[in-house]
Amino acid sequence: MAAATSLRLYPPNSNPLIFFSRKMVQFRGNSFFSTLRSSSSRFPTSVHPNPIRKPKPKSNGAVSVHPNPKPKPSGIVSVRPIPNGNLEPSGLVSIASSIPPPPPLPGVEGVMMEYICGQRRATLVAHSVWKHIVREGDTVIDATCGNGHDTLALLKMIADDTRKGRVYAMDVQKVALENTSLLLDHSVNPDEKELVELFSMCHTQMGDVVPDGVKVRLVAFNLGYLPGGDKKMITRSDTTLLAIEAAQKILMPGGLISIVAYVGHLGGREEFEKIEAFTSKLPFESWNCCKLQMLNRPLAPVLVFLFKR
Ligand code: SAH
Question: What's the 76 CA to ligand 1 centre distance in angstroms?
C-alpha cells in the first residue's frame, strides 16, 4: 500500500475529473517500475528501497573516469562512442580495462570530468550543481516533476531532522504526478515523503504554492516531454518563460534556477533559443547566467543555470 500523497489540486476547487484525484495513489505492482525503467530513455534508473537511509556508494553505477588517463595500450581499452542522438544516450561510454580505474574525483569536479569525457548525463550534472546550492531545511521547487527523479534528488538534499524543508513539485499531467508519488513511495519513508507536496498545475503559477515570507533556494526545470509518456505533451516556450519569471520573483539571493532544455524534439530548439535570448538580457548585477552545451552533439540537452546574486 502506498503512503498518502500530499497532492493538492490547483486551483483548490478544481474539478477532480480534470485534475488528479486527491485519493491515495495505489501501488500498481512491479510492472510500474519495469515499465518506467524500460520506457524511460532519458532516465534509465534503478529504484532502491530507501536511498536516503542507505545511500549508494559514490560511484552510483557510473564508470569512473581518470581526469588524465594514460595513453591507451591498444587492445586493452575499448571505447564505444556516444551516438549523436537528440536525447541522453542510455549507455554512455563504456570502458573495459584490465587496469583498475583510479578513485573518482569527489563532488561537482568529478561529475564535470565525467560529463566532459562523455560519461555523465546533463541531468546528473545539474543534480551535482544543486548539491552546492541547496541546504538541509530549504524550500525548493521542481517545476516539471515528470517521473519524479528530480523531485527525489531534491528531497534528499533538503530533508533533515528539523523537517522544515519542502519540495513543491508540479506537473500538468496526472500520470506524471502518479509516477512521482510512486517513485517516492518506493524510495523514501512516509515521513520523508511528507516533505514533498505535489501540485497538479501549470508552473506559471508556482508563486501561489509558496507560503508567504518563504524564499526559495532552487527552482528546477526539466523541459520537453515526459519520458515514457505522451511526446506531444511538451513544455512550451511562452509558458516556460512566464514560469522562469515567476521563479525569479520567489528565489532568494544565492538561489539558483536550473534548466535542462531538450532541443531534439519539435519546438524544443525554439524553446531553448527563447530561454537563451531572455536570460542573456538579465542584468548581470543581479543574475549570473550561463549554459553548458555539447558543441559537436547539436541535439544534446543544454544546461542553463541562472544564479541570483
Ligand atoms: N523532471 C522529470 C522530467 C520532466 S519531463 C523527471 O525527473 O522525470 C517534462 C514534464 O513537464 C512533463 O511531465 C510534462 O507534463 C511537464 N509539463 C509540461 N508543461 C508543463 C507546465 N506548463 N507546467 C508544469 N509541468 C509541465
Answer: 43
Q: What is the pTM of this model?
A: 0.75
Mind giving me the DSSP string for 176-208?
HHHHHHHHHHTTS-HHHHTTEEEEES-GGGGGG
- 145 CA distance to ligand 1 middle (Å): 6
**What separation in Å is there between the alpha carbon of 261 and the centre of ligand 1?**
11
Query: Which residues lie with the beta carbon below 6 Å from any ligand 1 atom?
Result: 43, 144-150, 170-173, 176, 202-203, 222, 224, 226-227, 233, 235, 239
Q: Compute the distance between CA of residue 149 and CA of residue 147 in angstroms, rounded to an integer.
A: 6
Tell me which residue has its CA closest to atom 21 in ligand 1.
202
Among candidates 43, 95, 9, 51, which has minimal Cα distance to 185? 51
> Over the stretch 66-112, which tens digit does the pLDDT of each residue have?
344 344 444 333 333 333 334 443 434 444 557 777 777 888 999 99
Domain architecture of the chain: domains with CATH: 8-49+123-308 (3.40.50.150)
